[in-house]
Design goal:
The protein is α+β, with helices and mostly antiparallel strands and 366 residues long. 25% of the residues lie in helices and 29% in strands. A six-stranded mixed β-sheet has the order 7-8-19-11-21-9. Strand 2 and strand 3 form a beta hairpin. Helix 5 crosses helix 6 and helix 6 packs across helix 7. Bound molecules: fe (ii) ion.
Amino acid sequence: MKIEIKDKKVFFENHGSKKEIHPFWLRERVNGDNFVDKKTQQRLFDPTELKENIQINNLNLSNEFLEVTFNDGAHTKITIQNILKEFSNINEIKYIDKVEWDSSLKNFNNFEFKDNFFEEEEMYKALVSFYQYGFVIFKKVPTKNNFIVNFANSIGSIRRTNFGEFFDVKSKPNPNDLAYTSLPLAPHTDNPYRNPVPCIQMLHCIENEVSGGLSTLVDGYTVTQKLKKDFKDFYKILTEIKVRFQFVDQSVVLEDWAEMIQLDESGNFKQVRFSPRLDFVPLMDVDKLQLYYSARKKISELYNSDKFKIEFKLSPGDLLMMDNYRLLHGRTTYDANEGNRFLQGCYIDYDSTEGKLKHLKRKFNL
Ligand SMILES: [Fe+2]
């Protein structure tokens, strides 16, 4: 990749293809104290107010800089590196490869909480691991005073829902969700009825005196890859049909329509939704519904199979952070008479983890 100039025009050359860079594109990037606020990196001018026919009057190219004078009098010196960075189109998160895993996954990436943790390189490693595996476990996280709120807000911002800023997971009378019972919970994703669905869930273990109540995780990415390979028709219909997910209680009705396996615009994995107690398949032709039900049964079998599930016990101080677009989670049953089992949970969105990861990458020059 390189920058070239010719006849008052700037070109970007990559793998033999050479394209002109629009003068306005460069004019928008004029830097210097009169044009950009140093602290915020935000423009001090509004490019929509500039005249449209911006032309280049003068150009100078060195190894490190491109110097441009425009016909409206603006002059700038842009580093070549900054221009190339914009063309490389590298989104750091997207380029962290997902590691497919199943029940054979043994060494979970644990990270020990300590003072200043959120500004340390260790936090960067934890976030990279989170994007690779879809989850990470933090150990020795303080359990007093709803510290989960502090923890979440130190990475980004809590996503508040109708369950509150955070929620207590323990069995209680008259629950509005099965999570608040001692019943087993099959692998599921949280809140598929919200728009947007909360991206990341945190569960912080405060007390755990029972012998059951193991936490379970399944990698929805691994399972859908398996389905794509071995059951093409099932994969196809689950990526195509939108179903209605619903949550109803005394004070709210939440509904959203979405695919159980959602792909991005390039046909790649984006998100799984699975919560078979609150999904409603639309009325379709009998044959199509038959195929849909078979597909849903198959993916449910895979999600619930011991081949893909990991089980582990959370101890007081453990904080599990998991990707709710990729992983399914659940728990085994427990006997509430054995003692207390008390977790606190909350949600954050991807802008929190991405923002933190990019900040730490910049800070440590990684
Ligand atoms: Fe859940």
